[in-house]
Amino acid sequence: MNLDLIPNIKNTKSGNFFLLAGPCAIEGEEMAFQICEKIKTITDKLEIPFIFKGSFKKANRSRLDSFTGIGDDKALEILKKVGEHFNVPTVTDIHEVSDAYKAAKYVDVLQIPAFLVRQTDLVVAAAKTGKVVNLKKGQFMSADAMKHAVKKVTDSGNEQVWITDRGTMFGYQDMIVDFRGIPTMQQYAPTILDITHSLQQPNQVSGVTGGKPELIETIAKAGIAVGVDGIFLETHYDPSCAKSDGANMLKLDYLENLLTKLVAIRKTIFKFT
After folding, report:
1. CA dist list (Å): 136 to 116, 154, 163
2. Residue 236: what are its φ and ψ, rounded to 5°?
3. Are residues 100 and 111 in contact, defined by beta-carbon separation less than 8 angstroms?
4. Rounded CA gap, 159 and 36, in Å?
5. What pLDDT score was predicted for residue 213?
6. Res. 246 pLDDT band, cuts 50 70 90
7. If exposure means fewest CB atoms within 10 Å of the residue's CB, which of 52, 189, 210, 229 is most exposed?
8. Domains, in order of start, for the chain
9. Are the C-beta atoms of 247 and 208 separated by less than 8 Å?
10. Over the stretch 10-56, which tens digit does the pLDDT of each residue have?
11. pLDDT band at residue 105 under the 50/70/90 scheme
């Protein structure tokens, strides 16, 4: 894996895991700048390669009245400003073929949502932009099945592809992480663990997804112990006021303590391997 191919990424020689982190959705310019500044300060201190994450729109909502975004162009412009101001790479998720070409003008990594990872046209369109493609493992898919999604990207002429595990459906309203799948997926591409969405509780009667943020540290520690290449997390200075996925987000104030512990675990494991 060559992170140095990503524009403006830092701390690639540290031996640390890399981090994709930011708010679930771009709610405005001020909040995006505030969150990115905090994460960048922490990751520079701990020498963690950092990619700022923010969705420019939320297309997979349970209810019609759920927040979907502040406007595609406005949100993408904010992502671009954040990347340029803090000199960090950025990632956003896409939902339609046209999104791939639009978003590629603004961000460095295109993310395919878990529900859409089998959509061939979408995956191929992302691959053909030449950007890094982050494939989220479908909640309904086995780890081994992700080799086919990876092959769609590489067969399209793009070798820059990652896999992100975000848990597997367990019944109707819970998720579970099968850590046996991490080394399986690493055979096909660098593998990231999404430590916030893995704790979602979807399909609630209210139509608003729940979560178990108190277990974020538990999932994260286990992922680092297994040897994931990267960590994905969504964070907000006040998750209770976040307009999307607040129930499973990490409060920004807790981020440094969590990452400090994860770096220590990583160093310990590599010391003895």
Report:
1. 9, 16, 6
2. -155, 145
3. no
4. 28
5. 75
6. confident
7. 210
8. 3-9+17-271 (3.20.20.70)
9. yes
10. 999 999 999 999 999 999 999 999 999 999 999 999 999 999 999 99
11. very high
Distance of CA 177 to the CA centre of its chain: 15
Q: What residues contact 48, with CB distance under 8 A and at least 6 apart?
A: 11, 14, 16, 17, 18, 19, 42, 259, 263
Strands 132-136 and 109-112, by their bridges, are: parallel
Burial class (CB within 10 angstroms; exposed 0-12, middle 13-18, buried 19+) of 237: middle
What does the pLDDT average to over 267-272? 85
227 CB contacts (<8 Å, ≥6 apart)? 182, 183, 186, 269
- Best CA proximity match to 177, nearest among 214, 123, 226: 226
CA–CA distance, 241 with 216 (Å, rounded to integer)? 19
82 has pLDDT over 80: yes
CB atoms within 10 A of CB 45: 11
Exposed e or buried b for every residue in 246-261, given b needs 16+ CB within 10 A?
A: bbbbbebeebbebbee
- Residue 32's Cβ-count burial label (10 Å; 0-12, 13-18, 19+) is buried
Residue 64 — pLDDT band, cuts 50, 70, 90? low
pTM value? 0.93
Q: What ranges in the chain are assigned the alpha helix state H?
A: 29-46, 72-86, 97-103, 120-128, 146-154, 181-186, 216-226, 255-271
Residues 101, 171: Cα–Cα separation, whole Å:
36
